[in-house]
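Researcher: Next entry: Methyl-accepting chemotaxis protein (Rhizobium lusitanum).
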Amino acid sequence: MTTMFGIHSTAGTMKTGALDAMSANIMIADAKLNIVYINPATRDLLQEAEGDLKKELPRFSMATLVGSNIDIFHKNPAHQRSMLAALKKQHRATISVGHRMFDLIVTPLMRAERIMGFVVEWADAKARLQNTDYRNQLLAINRVQAVIEFTPDGEIVSANDNFLAAVGYTIAEIKGRNHRMFLAEGEVGDREFEQLWTDLRANKPHIGDIIRYGKGGKAIYLNASYNPITNDAGKVVKVVKFATDVSERVFAVRTVGDALSKLALGDLSFSLDRAFAKDFEALRENMNSALQQLGDTLASVSRSAGMIDDGAREISDGANNLSRRTEQQAAALEETAAALDEITVNVGNAAKRANEARQAAATANDSAHHSGLIVADAVGAMARIEESSNSIGNIIGVIDEIAFQTNLLALNAGVEAARAGEAGKGFAVVAQEVRELAQRSAKAAKEIKELIRNSSEEVRHGVQLVHQTGDALKVIKDNITSVNEHMQAIAVSANEQSTGLTEVNSAVNQMDQVTQQNAAMVEEATASSATLSQEAERLRQMITRFKLSGLSSYAGAAQPTAISGDEEALASFGNPKKVIRLSSNSAARG
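Model: Predicted structure:
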């Protein structure tokens, strides 16, 4: 068999067989960098990566790899060629082809200072880089977290500085001791230890917030994970705990929780004076600011409630007085409205009567005018009667003269009859009869004349009375006319008064309705004022439930108290209802 460099010998065959049997990935190139040999391990490695290598190295092919130049692995072969030509000792490098990473160890084969070829050992760098990454991650974790390692039974193997600083022990004080030393004393700690390590030995990790106790019984609050580590057979060989000390966070949360509990009870007279960790200091400041602002607000509300209460009481008193006055005014207006209704009715009746009186006066005026005409006619008739009486008197005077002449003639006839003697006796009788008739006629004429004279006097007196009656009727007519005019004015005035009183009555009724509405509104306002006063008192009573700083007028007021948070700690992390004294544990758990 010819050797890799053209030498055929049994020794060369043995060397080649040994290389073929090696698990290491071996590639050999001659001095001209031509690949003359790859062992099966190298072939398997590159065969598996051939697809990825071709993406970056188009000339690469496993079928023609032996006999190809090593330049096929480089995009810029000149650099590698110059480096290899000057190589005198073993060279290590890591190359990247696509997403593949390979570790290379190049060893020059020298003879008398002359390079005869190169042996290249290939290795997949993925596992190494991954292990490096894991190691760096663990280092990073180790820098920021508390790390402690245990045996499967809980015996402490090692702990980093962060853990030692948290618990206050040195490594010499805890190495070889059991994890039980960090748990609570008594049955509670025993049960927790047994359950925890039973799960861990069964390869069940434990993650969550926990409380542990360091040197001197100091409570330590941790966010931790217990991680069982197994061998290739899956057996738990150790347990590693990664933890972050969250005591400051717990202190901040617990302190704020206590503050909120006090706040829920109405106590605002305190402040958080002990500083929190840097990440939580803003929370403390905001809490103090909120307490201060809420206290100031409630104090202002308290003062305002007092002012509202006083104002409501004043409003209520004023509303009560106004209500009484409004009720009185409403009653007076109601009476006024009733009186105006009666007056309106009476004025309406008076206007009606005035109209009737005006009509009666007009009728009387017409009657007086008609009576005047009748009296005028009567006066004319009386004048005519007087004239007729005068005429009758004249006639009676003529008759009286005739009777006188007749009497005188009868007397003369008697005288002549007496002279005639017997012859004249009959004539004397006739003359006597005529004389008696003349006397009787004269007497009758005298009586008639007297009667006519008396009648004329009566007629004259009647005429005078008729004239007086006419004058009186004229005066009555004038008076009735004046009365009619006055009654007309009274009727117009009464109508106007009736209209005005109707409008006044309507206005008063409207005022009465508005006053009644105002009275109802005043009653509502009074009730609202009373309700407002009650609510203000209720608000004041509610504010008295709060304990405010600087308000000594309220029960329970006191000066601000500070919450330091050093007095109590949680007995089990995540259960704020169970608390223990931080100073109560003077001895270390162990």
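Model: Note for the record: The CA atoms of residues 272 and 563 lie 5 Å apart.
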